[in-house]
């Protein structure tokens, strides 16, 4: 209670004490400000007109004090002009009482102030809970993000080599998840001296569960352990031979539906490549068409569309064949390439991919794939893509010729 009139203070203090308030009373704004620095009041009742620091100046100084809770400020005034009220509100006052103070009106104004303070305290309490919750969530997010960074490294390690020369064929790989981890997987595996296999897989969805699915599939098509590779069969006299790609994909379909408890399915292209002839036998299971780029610049889609793996029991898959002539190459890409949107949402589609491949005719191997990613970034106008980007590039210089 701040008022230079001792009588006015005594009248108000009598009522306030009777209502149960803990009080401090002073005769000036300077004295009140000194008290407020050490003792934090919930409510302030201050006269406007006082010598030295008046009520308006004290209100401004009171609002400038650092405090955790809100202080409700009531100005006592004999002024009733509207511009005086606006001046008081600008200074930070919450309410006004006109002298002489009516006891019932004072009680009502204090009750209103208490309601606001109660709401403010409840809001502060809830904000404290929110801050604590956010701190815990941030800590959990940091742990998860750290785990995902390690998971990304592990997923990238599934693609042990990004390029290999199966003379005279060259194979290059691209794998770029949209997030920390993704649902795409590419790879190749040697079968014998005459042929090798390669694959491009796109598991439905994104994130951790899709990435775990790719890890499981990588085991089925292992390049390090031929005995575990479902696309290879051992020969009685030693060595290995390829299984027909259609048979392999059908087998994977049965494994996903029968042994792997998941709602995920995946699209894929599985191809076996004969080194001496350049002939490729492939199965396209829901995956985008592989793109054949002839040495003369001609471009064509190849493959026979089929259903994704893990959707239909007893699904059958058809094989297609294409033979690469010297100087030809085959790009097997995920839908993250052809369905990459530009700033207006227009998809790149096969036509846009063909145009990019024409521009990159003089580039080969992993350099071509990285250049393709750069061009996709320019097309999309972003560094991060909405979907995983992956591809397998097969290049055939021809028997007795060097790499492209």
Reconstruct the topology from this structure.
Blueprint: H1 6-18, H2 29-38, E1 43-47, H3 55-64, E2 72-77, H4 82-91, E3 95-98, H5 103-157, E4 163-166, E5 169-176, E6 184-190, E7 195-203, H6 208-220, E8 232-234, E9 240-242, H7 245-258, E10 266-274, E11 279-285, E12 291-293, E13 299-301, E14 319-323, E15 328-333, H8 335-338, H9 349-359, H10 365-380, E16 389-396
Parallel strand pairs: 1-2, 2-3
Antiparallel strand pairs: 4-5, 5-16, 6-7, 7-10, 8-9, 10-11, 11-14, 12-13, 12-15, 15-16
- Largest sheet data: 6 strands, antiparallel
Number of folding domains? 2
Q: Any idea what the radius of gyration is?
A: 38 Å
Terminal Cα separation, in Å?
91 Å
CATH homolog superfamily of the largest domain: PPM-type phosphatase domain
- Structure summary, number of beta strands: 16
Average pLDDT confidence is 90
> What is the CATH topology of the largest domain?
Phosphatase 2c, domain 1
Q: State the helical fraction.
A: 25-40%
The H-and-E topology, N to C, reads as: HHEHEHEHEEEEHEEHEEEEEEHHHE
The assigned structural class equals: alpha+beta
Q: How many DSSP H or I helices?
A: 10
Percentage of residues in strands: 15-25%
CATH architecture of the largest domain: 4-Layer Sandwich
Principal-axes geometry comes out as rod-shaped
- Reading side by side through the largest sheet, how are the strands ordered? 4-5-16-15-12-13
Q: Quaternary state, please?
A: single chain
Which regions are unreliable across 5 or more consecutive residues at pLDDT < 50? 400-404
CATH classification class of the largest domain: Alpha Beta
């Amino acid at each position: 209670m701040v008022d230079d009139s001792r009588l006015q203070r005594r009248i108000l203090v009598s009522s306030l004490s009777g209502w149960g308030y803990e009080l401090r009373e002073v005769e000036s704004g300077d004295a009140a400000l000194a008290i407020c620095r050490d003792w934090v009041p919930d409510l302030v009742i201050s006269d406007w007109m006082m010598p030295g620091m008046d009520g308006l100046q004290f209100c401004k100084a009171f609002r400038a004090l650092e405090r955790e809770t809100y202080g409700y400020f009531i100005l006592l005034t004999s002024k009733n002009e509207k511009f005086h009220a606006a001046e008081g509100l600008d200074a930070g006052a919450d309410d006004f009482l006109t002298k002489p103070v009516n006891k019932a009106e004072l009680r009502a104004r204090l009750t209103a102030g208490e309601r606001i303070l109660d709401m403010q305290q409840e809001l502060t309490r809830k904000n404290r809970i929110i801050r604590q919750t956010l701190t815990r969530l941030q800590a959990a997010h940091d742990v998860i993000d750290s785990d995902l960074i390690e998971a990304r490294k592990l997923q990238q390690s599934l693609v042990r080599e990004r390029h290999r020369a199966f003379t005279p064929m060259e194979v290059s790989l691209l794998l770029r998840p949209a997030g920390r981890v993704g649902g795409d997987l590419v790879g190749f595996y040697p079968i014998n001296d005459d042929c090798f296999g390669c694959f491009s897989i796109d598991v439905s969805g994104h994130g951790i569960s899709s990435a775990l699915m790719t890890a499981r599939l990588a085991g089925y098509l292992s390049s390090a352990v031929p005995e575990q590779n479902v696309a290879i069969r051992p020969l009685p006299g030693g060595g290995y031979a390829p299984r027909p790609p259609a048979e392999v994909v059908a087998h994977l379909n049965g494994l996903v539906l029968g042994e792997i408890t998941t709602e995920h399915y995946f699209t894929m292209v599985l191809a076996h490549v004969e080194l001496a002839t350049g002939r490729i036998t492939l199965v396209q299971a829901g995956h985008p068409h592989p793109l054949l780029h002839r040495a003369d610049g001609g471009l064509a889609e190849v493959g026979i569309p089929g259903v994704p793996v893990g959707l239909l029991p007893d699904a059958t898959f058809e094989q297609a064949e294409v033979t690469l002539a010297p100087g030809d190459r085959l790009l097997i890409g995920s839908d993250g390439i052809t369905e990459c949107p530009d700033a207006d949402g227009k998809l790149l589609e096969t036509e846009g991919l063909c145009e990019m491949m024409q521009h990159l005719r003089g580039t080969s191997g992993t350099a071509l794939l990285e250049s393709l990613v750069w061009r996709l970034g320019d097309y999309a106008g972003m560094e991060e893509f909405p979907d995983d980007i992956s591809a397998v590039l097969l290049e055939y210089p021809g028997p007795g010729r060097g790499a492209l």
